[in-house]
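new request in #modeling-help
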Amino acid sequence: MRLEAGLLFASDSRTNAGVDHIATFRKMTVFEQAEERLIVLLSSGNLATTQSVVSLLQQRLHHDGMHLLNARSMYDAAELVGQTIREVLARDAHDIQQAQGIDFGGNFLVGGQIRGEAPRLFHVYPQGNFIEACEDTPYFQIGESKYGKPIIDRVVDFRTTLAEAAKCTLISFDSTVRSNLSVGLPIDMLLYRGDSFAPARPHRIDREDRYFMRLRRGWGEGLRRVFARLPDAEWFETPDEPKR
Amino acid sequence: MRLEAGLLFASDSRTNAGVDHIATFRKMTVFEQAEERLIVLLSSGNLATTQSVVSLLQQRLHHDGMHLLNARSMYDAAELVGQTIREVLARDAHDIQQAQGIDFGGNFLVGGQIRGEAPRLFHVYPQGNFIEACEDTPYFQIGESKYGKPIIDRVVDFRTTLAEAAKCTLISFDSTVRSNLSVGLPIDMLLYRGDSFAPARPHRIDREDRYFMRLRRGWGEGLRRVFARLPDAEWFETPDEPKR
């Protein structure tokens, strides 16, 4: 999310190749230089592809040429991620994909701030092109995004505070985790206040996290209370049905 | 949904071929014989395929051989729907699909009651095979199902009353309609009390439906109230952020 107050990043850590092979991998990678820049990558899709993209981006920090610690703008950083996706897919996927029906693609969210610019957030597609979040559409999701979208659409806009956005994000993840096996705890969350250039302090939320437990319970009970108070429709009231 | 009390069917009426071609079509078809059987079909997927399947099933009611008004069991009815999907796909999709990358597939939900059996509900896949709902999994969704799944998972179980199930279904549709353009009003809803063999009275809910408007408003306000009362996390309280 790219909000007026800053940026929020969150990722789960479940990866799977079918339900019989479920593993935990961090999907958030931070690149930072004190007082000058913070760039955060979130990934979804084929793990071999996204890991390779991240590894190449990290390895090249020590090389000549453009990399994430010397890119002049977040736009250039997003373009670099896109190029690297194309490079990995050209290497790994050019023939095999057709033959085996495997999806080698990966999506990235690339957000952060480089001194001289406002905080920015991009969604880089498997094709390497990308779009940027704006005031009207202040957030992106990648991966298993649909289950958790309605609550974000109801609550979050550009002026939402970081604390509220974090609360909403955890509720959104909770809905997804309940409805889909391919998304699972722990959740990595990173909040960045615009123009602070503060060191990144990602917070890892597992199933014993007290705040998350409190949110889950409070939200679930609250929903059921709101639901119970809403009226039944007259057009199918059925006198023979006992009230529960 | 196949509940202890009976069956609930609901469908939206939006079909699209890209966002520039959006149209309204009924996706619910009822086959009934007074005091003897009620069979309801809901469809999703390729409209040419699903309309053909329904037309063939209707046309054959007047022919010899098995059809939906003489099938001996709901199991046989589901199998007939599956066979008809295979027949239409064999006719329309056998070469073209490979060449043009079009998905000709359609999914059907087939539910109802035939005298001598309990109410039953099946999900028939594009391949023509099918699964049946049971007490542990009392509902199926087809089409754009993810946005609206979390609320159903929280509220509905086998013992939920029909009125509560209807309320939950409308809330689920509301969430989907808000988050995805490919799902839209009006909603067709049909409730069937088990063993009643009562005439089907589908209810059509459009955006002026007073009950639906009341649910939407009450649910939206209720969610925001529950959300506002949940606490912020201590681990990212930021004293410089003004409270809204």
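bot summary: Residues 12 and 192 of chain A are 18 Å apart (CA to CA).
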